[in-house]
Specification:
Elements: E1 4-8, H1 22-36, E2 40-45, E3 54-57, H2 66-82, E4 87-90, E5 107-111, H3 117-125, E6 131-135, H4 138-141, E7 150-153, E8 175-178, H5 187-197, E9 201-204, H6 212-219, E10 228-232, H7 236-244, E11 248-251, H8 261-268, E12 273-276, H9 281-284, E13 291-294, H10 297-304, H11 312-322, H12 325-340
Parallel strand pairs: 1-2, 1-4, 2-3, 4-5, 5-6, 6-7, 8-9, 8-11, 9-10, 11-12, 12-13
Helix pairs in contact: 1-12, 5-10, 8-11
């Protein structure tokens, strides 16, 4: 059965993103796969998006603007009325669903960030019907009390075709940190690990204006361009090469990351992940199989010394079985069918 599916993103970033934008990359691959499967997919997103399905550009470009939010929710309602939509799948703000919350059409609200009890309560107060909540991990799903709506964890995924499996790397292959350069992401912890293991560390990712002092004082001040090196933001091709030639990805986060797509990207290259036990890490890393889970910097230092004990083929296999676009698209498709009955 082929479905008419309306998928929504937030309006700020195009689908797919040029550099940073993990959610938008997920949306791009999902709409592409659903279209390949024969479904009629409409995406409501940023005007600069370049997708394989039908694109409806948002009129409003800021989720923080009340006026823009009203205009964007009206657009969603117009599409719902005119195109005989079977399923509405929102990766954007719940507020965009307001005009159709009480309608009988099946609606999925997917969270890639921590869920607030306030947002769930608002949906309850407004009398939302046929609303299902999904999140990118069990950890993310459990950040709110969801009593009156069905809820499921469906992990994020990567396009395995974009990541080249490297069965072997050089003996002196570097460690890699890849992510936004905010304190909670833990690049400073990765630097400490590299210094204590005498391993080269390559740091890639975008810096933010909000944490300029952190970047200047704790990252750049430690970079010598040789042992500790900052590469800046990387595109998909550069990311593939960076992760594929690394001995390990360090993921020393200091917050409960809802998913951490970079872990799946590293595994797709065959690169093990050494991560702090926070957020979704235990759902992605099988300790001793595709990486190591640790509690602090000291343990991470010890596990770097044991990285040769991880089979890179097992890392790739874990990505194929758990985080490929085919596996996760099928999970969403099965959910659509179950709601359409």
């Amino acid at each position: 059965m082929k479905l008419n599916i309306l998928i929504t993103a937030d309006p700020e970033i195009p689908v797919p993103p040029i550099l940073y934008g993990g959610i938008e990359r997920i949306i791009y691959d999902l709409t592409k796969e659903l279209t390949v499967k024969g479904h009629n997919v409409i995406l409501l997103a940023n005007k600069d998006s370049k997708v394989k399905c039908k694109l409806v550009p948002y009129k409003g470009f800021s989720s923080r603007s009340i006026t823009h939010t009203i205009n964007n929710s009206r657009q969603l309602y117009d599409i719902y009325r005119k195109h005989n939509i079977d399923i509405v799948h929102s990766f954007g703000r719940l507020s965009y669903l307001l005009p159709i919350l009480r309608s009988g059409i099946p609606k999925i609200q997917t969270y890639q960030r921590h869920i607030t009890n306030k947002s769930i309560r608002i949906a309850e107060i407004l009398g939302a019907r046929n609303l299902v909540i999904t999140a990118c991990s069990d950890n993310c799903l459990n950040t709110a009390k969801i009593n009156n709506f069905d809820s499921f964890a469906i992990h994020n995924f990567v396009d395995l075709n974009k990541y080249s499996f490297k069965k072997n790397v050089k003996n002196d292959a570097p460690l890699v940190f890849l992510g936004r350069l905010d304190h909670i992401k833990g690049a400073h912890n990765a630097i400490e690990v590299a210094k204590n293991t005498n391993r080269q560390l390559l740091i890639a990712g975008n810096r933010t204006k909000e944490e300029k002092d952190y970047f200047d004082n704790e990252i750049m001040s430690q970079c010598d361009g040789k042992i500790i090196k900052y590469l800046g933001p990387v595109n998909d091709e550069e990311k593939n090469k960076l992760l594929g030639t690394a001995a390990a990805l360090l993921f020393p986060i200091e917050w409960d990351e809802p998913f951490g797509i970079v872990m799946a990207e590293a595994l797709a290259c065959g690169t093990p992940v050494i991560a702090f036990r926070r957020g979704s890490v235990p759902e992605v890393i099988d300790h001793g199989i595709n990486g190591y889970i640790c509690e602090n910097v000291e343990e991470m230092i010890n596990f770097v010394e044991k990285i040769d004990g991880i089979n890179r083929t097992e890392c790739r296999k874990s990505a194929e079985l758990n985080f490929s676009k085919n596996v996760i698209t099928e999970k969403y498709e099965n959910l659509y069918y179950s709601l359409k009955k």
